[in-house]
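Quick one, tokens below. Sequence please?
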């Protein structure tokens, strides 16, 4: 039912969309210049037709982040979700740099191997910063850009200051604690009822994979996407900015900063919604997204 690289706890999922996505997760060896061996890369692919969509998750997350949005989009578009290098269920080879540059190279090689045509690139939170970085480097690969409560202007995760020896391991073990992750989840939603046992499991399954903490420490020590803010205005492709009006993770000020910085952009507020509109308001998020995808 589930691929063997997924932890056995995946069988405890209860929400229909969570189970459906878990059954679709695959791994593929992606040859890339940053590694002597292909990197086993986790992804989900569903749908056909239309301009391909490529979805990028946030910090310390995985493909499960898009479990509710995927069915909405795949009805109309060829839709892909990928676990970025160092995150989710993608393998974490030893002696590999887990940095924005490595993430971007790996993402391009995945795109080249699996899609190889311009996509609507969607990034949530840190995935938004990764999407911006990718679009600036490979503009021919990106037809349109969608930013969901995106990082890019904001500084890196607050936990970063603790990810130095000997505190790095202790900091990630603190982040692994269920009560800590629950508190983050409660802050991410406008409606706390969304923080169910199934949601908490979806957010924690990837922690079971080997070298989770090593990769998280390496990425944070690299500085993350703190270099990006002065480059955002260079984005030229059509860009949709969707933002929960009650975002307690990144706040709301950066939404208008993105709109001002990106010339060809449109900002839409998602009412009564927190940091994750694709989880809290998937139907409405998909509606705005699909309307944007049809604009010439």
């Amino acid at each position: 039912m589930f691929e063997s690289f997924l932890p056995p706890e995946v069988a405890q999922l209860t929400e229909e969309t969570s189970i459906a996505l878990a059954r679709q997760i695959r791994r593929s060896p992606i040859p890339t210049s940053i590694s002597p061996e292909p990197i086993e890369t986790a992804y989900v692919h569903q749908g056909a037709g239309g301009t391909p969509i490529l979805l990028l998750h946030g910090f310390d997350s995985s493909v499960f982040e898009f479990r509710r949005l995927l069915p909405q989009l795949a009805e109309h578009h060829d839709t892909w979700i990928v676990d970025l290098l160092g995150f989710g269920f993608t393998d974490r080879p030893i002696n590999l740099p887990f940095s924005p540059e490595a993430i971007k190279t790996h993402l391009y090689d995945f795109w080249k191997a699996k899609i190889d045509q311009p996509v609507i690139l969607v990034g949530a939170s840190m995935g938004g910063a990764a999407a911006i970085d990718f679009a600036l480097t490979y503009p021919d690969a990106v037809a349109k850009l969608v930013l969901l409560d995106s990082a890019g202007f904001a500084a890196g995760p607050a936990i970063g200051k603790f990810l130095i020896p000997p505190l790095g391991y202790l900091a990630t073990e603190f982040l692994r604690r269920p009560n800590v992750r629950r508190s983050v989840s409660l802050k991410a939603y406008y409606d706390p009822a969304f923080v169910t046992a199934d949601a908490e499991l979806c957010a924690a399954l990837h922690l079971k994979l080997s070298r989770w903490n090593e990769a998280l420490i390496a990425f944070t020590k690299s500085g993350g996407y703190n270099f990006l803010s002065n480059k955002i205005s260079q984005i030229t492709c059509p860009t949709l900015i969707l933002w929960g009006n009650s975002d307690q993770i990144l706040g709301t000020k950066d939404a208008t900063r993105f709109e001002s910085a990106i010339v060809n952009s449109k900002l839409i507020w998602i009412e009564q919604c927190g940091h994750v509109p694709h989880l809290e308001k998937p139907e409405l998020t998909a509606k705005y997204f699909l309307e944007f995808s049809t604009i010439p």
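The chain has a mean pLDDT of 93. The first helix runs from residue 16 to 24.
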